[in-house]
Write a sequence for this structure.
């Protein structure tokens, strides 16, 4: 029994780590980002159904005699971006045989994604605006030699951490967008009209592009500040 408990723990641990990043835990990131409701992007989204699906798949594999290492690896791969989307699609098809009901379910889920992206973008905007103001001040102080190198490096440390943190969020958003595009394409192959979902995907793309633009602006300004 103890062995099974350990196996279950390992299996779920692998799957959870594969499905979602635990987020940036460095103290250098602005607390306005890490302490907000947007700190765990898609933490409760439909895509996390892969945790349950892949987790129990790996566990079942072990219980029927499979090698633990192979089973856990299979579970981890099964929770990858593409497999997460495939699992989600298959589960929705099983849940909703009616095409209109299934599309409505897709619309609901992607609208949740869109709201989360919008919240992340709005939260990031405030932090990045503050970072831009800081960079402007640093540039002036560096030119006038009124700030020590150590002080400059300390200021830049958080800005660099913020950029890395948000870039990580951006990468995950793009992965989710790709999943939705793939899902729409697969349903279209069955002759289903996916125009409603495609409009939501386009909205998601615009929101993601806005965040990427914000990050790029700060990254460019940050690159201009050189400390020898």
């Amino acid at each position: 029994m103890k062995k099974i408990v350990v196996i279950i723990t390992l299996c779920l641990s692998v799957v959870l780590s594969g499905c979602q990043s635990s987020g940036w835990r460095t103290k250098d990131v602005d607390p306005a980002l890490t302490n907000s409701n947007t700190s765990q992007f898609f933490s409760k989204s439909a895509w996390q159904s892969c945790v349950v699906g892949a987790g129990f798949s790996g566990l079942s594999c072990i219980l029927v005699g499979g090698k633990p290492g192979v089973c856990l690896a299979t579970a981890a791969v099964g929770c990858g971006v593409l497999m997460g989307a495939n699992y989600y699609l298959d589960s929705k098809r099983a849940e909703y045989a009616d095409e209109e009901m299934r599309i409505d379910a897709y619309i609901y889920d992607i609208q949740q994604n869109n709201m989360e992206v919008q919240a992340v973008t709005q939260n990031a905007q405030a932090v990045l605006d503050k970072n831009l103001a800081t960079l402007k001040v640093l540039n002036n102080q560096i030119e006038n030699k009124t700030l020590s190198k150590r002080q400059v490096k300390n200021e830049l440390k958080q800005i660099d951490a913020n950029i890395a943190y948000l870039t990580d969020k951006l990468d995950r958003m793009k992965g989710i967008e790709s999943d939705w595009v793939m899902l729409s394409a697969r349903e279209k192959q069955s002759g289903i009209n996916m125009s409603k979902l495609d409009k939501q995907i386009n909205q998601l793309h615009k929101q993601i592009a806005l965040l990427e633009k914000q990050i790029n602006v700060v990254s460019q300004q940050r690159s201009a500040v050189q400390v020898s």
Q: What stands out?
A: The CA atoms of residues 45 and 71 lie 25 Å apart. Confidence is low (pLDDT under 50) at residues 1-24, 43-59, 69-83. The two ends are 60 Å apart (CA to CA).
